[in-house]
Amino acid sequence: MKNANSISGLLVIIIAGFFYALTFDFPDSSNQAIGAEFMPRVYCIFLFVLGAMLIFQGAREKVEPTREEDTFKYSAITMLLVLVYLIIIPFIGFYISTFLLILSLLLFSKVKNWIILISIPIGTNLFILIFFQNFLNVSIPMGSLFS
Questions:
Q1: What average pLDDT does this structure show over 20-36?
Q2: Residues 138, 132: contact at Cβ < 8 Å?
Q3: pLDDT by residue (tens digit) across 77-90?
Q4: pLDDT of 40-55, one tens digit each?
Q5: Secondary-structure percent of the chain, ordered helix, strand, coil, rounded to 5
Q6: Which segments cross the bilayer (predicted)?
Q7: Across residues 123-134, what is the average pLDDT?
Q8: 48 touches 56 (CB < 8 A)
Q9: Sequence-separated (6 or more) residues with CB below 8 Å from residue 79
Q10: HEC secondary structure over 46-65
Q11: Cα–chain center distance at 147
């Protein structure tokens, strides 16, 4: 993981720098104190800091041998769960499928605390409902089963 974190951090920094440079091409709005480039630049700086932290973390980690087959197995199962999630969203809706995905990922991660197993999926759905559906008016698919 040591090299992977360092390489990932460097890649994040390069991407953040690239997008930060693109913000200089935004049109200038002299009648506003904060222009269109403000938030993208904030996000790029945030990404740069996170990339630097990842490089620093990679430099501090001790090299531990990992078993490639375990990493592949966990990645493949996670990708399969996400694929099933994407397939079932149109049928049972976003909220139920998201609850099931998060619950299955927590169970797959061997979380045994029932409070966490129930509160994390419910809290995620509540956050999406309140923030995205109510405040931002994002249309959430309800599924053909409930239409």
A1: 79
A2: yes
A3: 999 999 999 999 99
A4: 889 999 999 998 998 8
A5: 75, 0, 25
A6: 7-26, 38-56, 77-108, 114-132
A7: 90
A8: no
A9: none
A10: HHHHHHHHHHHHHHHCCCCC
A11: 29
For 50, half-sphere exposure in the C-beta direction (CA atoms, 13 angstrom radius) is 11
Residue 1 has pLDDT above 60, yes or no: no
Q: Which residues contact 16 (CB under 8 A, 6 or more apart)?
A: 44, 45, 47, 48, 51
Mean per-residue pLDDT for 132-145?
83
pTM: 0.56
Q: Is 75 exposed, middle or buried (0-12, 13-18, 19+ CB in 10 A)?
A: exposed
| CA–CA separation, 141 and 147 (whole Å) | 10
Task: Name every residue whose Cβ is closer than 8 Å to that of residue 74 and which is 6 or more positions away in sequence.
Answer: none
The torsion defined by the Cα of 5, 112, 106 and 55, in degrees rounded to 10, comes to -10
pLDDT tens string 55-80: 888 888 776 665 666 777 888 899 99
Secondary structure of residue 37 in the 3-state scheme:
coil
What is the number of helices (H) and of strands (E) in the chain?
Answer: 5, 0
